[in-house]
Specification:
- With 714 residues, this protein is of the alpha+beta class.
- It has a domain of 166 residues: Dipeptide-binding Protein, Domain 1 (Dipeptide-binding Protein, domain 1, Alpha-Beta Complex).
- 25% of the residues lie in helices and 20% in strands.
- The chain has 23 helices and 28 strands.
- Helix 11 runs antiparallel to helix 14 and helix 21 runs antiparallel to helix 22.
Length: 714
């Protein structure tokens, strides 16, 4: 249950899709200064002596957003997420090396799952009484409930967060409606959240959300220092009717909640104690480098593993110079290397003595991602046409050097679901075909010029591209974040040719140009290749399309995808196309709520697709749970993305049922094409041989594997 698991950042990080999580193909500018320390010099003839320190990094630049990367969105920067993984821990459940969720033997003393007579389910958890934060303060049951409670309130909504994280729990609606003492709505108690004693608590999932296919993950919760997400001097109480927060949590200054500002500020507060294996001891925003040191109070991960490497420096990897960074001692690990040239260059330094390697099939894929709530890319025919205008097989082979394959949807070839349905699933492979691209564009209504006359190929100026006459609904639509008249005011970004394409009004009707604004990251091989093979390709021009390119760093890319001002977003949606990557950090494949038409869930939407099928046949958690065949018949074989993603989790009770819903989900996704998968490839980790016992996997990256590793001599 994705939104229930979003109760905790741990679940957000470990469960859902992490679109744009900073793969190796995503590059940034401004390399960090070299603050590394080379291995210690050893006397002649003796064994080399190393410092108990490892330098990690990623091509995405650190932003300092380590305490809650992404702030409730479904995507986070890989570097920020990496620091979060290293500094956060003590979750009641964690995913193991194979991606499966396990109860933490370090944290959980006992647990019980009770199916109640009213079809709800209660998870009762007792934690050990010797858990501590990095400052030595005790971890109690209240610390596991602080986040659950805070981010289920209107106070959290004042932080630009949805405040909906506890929605799957009994009593959420009443608790969420409560605005403080004197509130005319709701109740102060959250009846489905109970504080039973100092080290025991329970969570009761409502009958609307239980059972679900991944029901066992309902108990995944993580502790936070109370002040972090409640503000100062707020306490959690339980008089027998459910947990509640003391009155000062709801204090107001005019119409604003005082605690909202405190909570938002704590998003970047690095002084608040940590729960994980490491703490951030230094953070240099100028060089984008963080120094992490061991948390001596950390009891261990889900199987009791503690780190032995004293210091982890986290910095910036520059794709073009990463081999020099490795061999020169600026980096000790190049993780998740992809791309033919980069892979071959990295393997060339592997000698078994100074540098070694490991590799595995990636649980993810590189992609073009579209914003689908405004502009040309809101139309599926445009997204399909772009796919037909790119030779993906050639792109994949060129980029991966033969170390990857092309997929046709959001899946890994290693997924058990794919292996279960691959012989019967029906997918369009979008083989390179400019003629087919033109055909689908014409079928989608892109048949006009800027004067509202029939489009003729070979024209110049503003008539070099196709235009589409918008319906009244399309012309008056607001974007997903509420920006009004977004399509009436649509325009391409400026370019060196001096031509700007804009939506034009003709006799009271609006015509939109087929001009796509694309944001790609700097110093990025994929960006360079897409510029040559797609954006500047003659086939795009001949199809009557233009793709306008803007480059910047990954933080700004995220800001525009998630419309987040703190990441540099300027307030008006501009770009409809991005290149980045996506991956699955666990084997739990759950996209429930990611396709909701409710504006409340817009920050969680991975692609912001409006699917007309969902409007005609919406999913209702309170309705009878249909089988796949029943739902297909009831909808007239028109199941939308929201229905399919929700039913896959809440209607499926067996593996076969889940796989059937999953197949329908992938087939509909493949038709709508919110992403264009470019490649699913092998990852290579090349690292300094001074690091021993370093074992990564598709679901166990460098940030988690480093807990098991050691430096030679330590």
């Amino acid at each position: 249950m994705k939104k229930f698991l979003a109760l905790l950042l741990a679940a957000v990080m470990c469960l859902g899709l992490l679109a744009g999580c900073g793969p190796k193909e995503t590059g940034e500018s401004n390399p960090p200064a070299d603050n590394s320390t080379a291995p210690s010099e050893a006397p002649s003839g003796s064994q080399e002596v190393f410092e108990n320190k490892v330098i990690l990094g990623d091509v995405t630049e650190l932003s300092g957003d380590f305490r809650y990367p992404g702030w409730g969105s479904s995507s986070v920067g890989a570097s920020d997420q990496g620091v979060w993984f290293l500094t956060s821990g003590l979750s009641t459940m964690e995913s193991d090396q194979g991606g499966a969720y396990q109860w933490s033997q370090t944290v959980v003393k006992s647990h019980e799952e009770t199916e109640n007579d009213d079809s709800t389910c209660t998870y009762t958890i007792e934690i050990y009484d010797d858990l501590k934060f990095s400052d030595g303060s005790p971890v109690t049951a209240k610390n596991y409930l602080a986040y659950v409670l805070s981010f289920s309130t209107p106070v959290a909504q004042g932080t630009n967060h949805s405040g909906m994280n506890g929605q799957a729990l009994v009593g959420f609606e009443d608790f969420n409606a409560y605005t403080g003492p004197g509130s005319e709505t709701g109740t102060k108690e959250f009846s489905g959240v109970r504080l039973l004693d100092d080290y025991t608590f329970s969570l009761t999932v409502s009958s609307e959300y239980y059972p679900s296919y991944f029901a066992y993950t309902n108990a995944a919760v993580q502790p936070y220092v109370m002040e972090q997400w409640l503000g100062k001097d707020v306490d959690i109480m339980d008089d027998g009717n459910g947990c509640y927060l003391t009155d000062n949590y709801y204090e107001k200054n005019g119409d604003d909640y005082v605690k909202a500002a405190e909570i938002l500020g704590n998003r970047y507060n690095l002084d608040i104690p940590y729960s994980g294996a490491y703490v951030v001891s230094e953070w240099d925003e100028g060089t984008s480098q963080a120094v992490l040191t061991i948390n001596p109070e950390f009891k261990g991960n889900f199987e009791g593993q503690k780190p032995s490497i004293e210091t982890v420096v986290y910095g910036r990897i520059i794709s073009e110079t990463q081999i020099a960074q490795l061999t020169g001692g600026e980096m000790d690990v190049l993780s998740s290397i992809t791309g033919g040239d980069d892979t071959k260059a990295a393997l060339a330094v592997v000698d078994g003595e100074k540098f070694v390697e490991t590799h595995y099939q990636r649980a993810g894929y590189g992609k073009i991602q579209f914003d689908c709530d405004f502009g040309p890319t809101m139309f599926k025919e445009v997204r399909q046409a772009v796919a037909y205008l790119l030779n993906r097989n050639e792109f994949c082979q060129t980029f991966t050097g033969g170390y990857g394959v092309v997929v046709d949807g959001p899946y890994s070839p290693d997924f058990s679901m794919w292996q279960g349905v691959q012989d019967e699933i029906e997918l369009t492979d979008y083989s390179y075909s400019p003629d087919t691209a033109v055909k689908v564009l014409e079928e989608g209504g892109w048949i006009y010029n800027s004067k509202g006359e029939p489009y003729e190929p070979g024209q110049t100026g503003v008539d070099a591209v196709r235009y589409k006459k918008l319906t009244a609904e399309e012309a008056n639509a607001a974007s997903g974040d509420g920006t009004a008249d977004i399509n009436k005011n649509y325009a391409s970004v400026a370019n060196t040719d001096g031509v700007t394409y804009k939506t034009v009004e003709i006799n009271g009707e609006y015509y939109m140009p087929l001009a796509i604004n694309w944001f790609g990251t700097d110093e990025n091989t994929v960006t360079d290749m897409l510029t040559t093979s797609l954006a500047n390709g003659s086939q795009v021009t001949e199809a009557g399309m233009v793709i306008r390119s803007t480059r910047g760093d990954f933080t700004l890319l995220q800001g525009n995808i998630y419309r987040e001002a703190s990441y540099g977003y300027e307030g008006t949606p501009t770009y409809g196309m991005y290149n980045l990557a996506t991956g699955w950090p666990s084997a739990v494949y759950d996209y429930s709520y990611n396709w909701s038409l409710d504006p409340m869930y817009f920050p969680y939407s991975a692609n912001k697709v409006f699917d007309e099928y969902d409007k005609a046949f919406p999913y209702d958690l309170k309705a009878e749970k249909l089988t796949y065949e029943e739902a297909v018949e009831a909808s007239g074989d028109k199941l939308g993305m929201d229905y399919l993603s929700m039913a896959m989790i809440f209607n499926a009770t067996t593996e076969d049922e889940y796989n059937h819903w999953w197949m329908g989900y992938i087939e509909r996704w493949n038709e709508l094409m919110p992403d264009i998968p470019l490649y699913s490839n092998y990852y290579y980790d090349v690292y300094n041989a001074k690091i021993e016992n370093f074992h990564t996997s598709p679901f166990f990256g460098q940030h988690r594997a480093i807990l098991y590793a050691n430096v030679k001599g330590f």
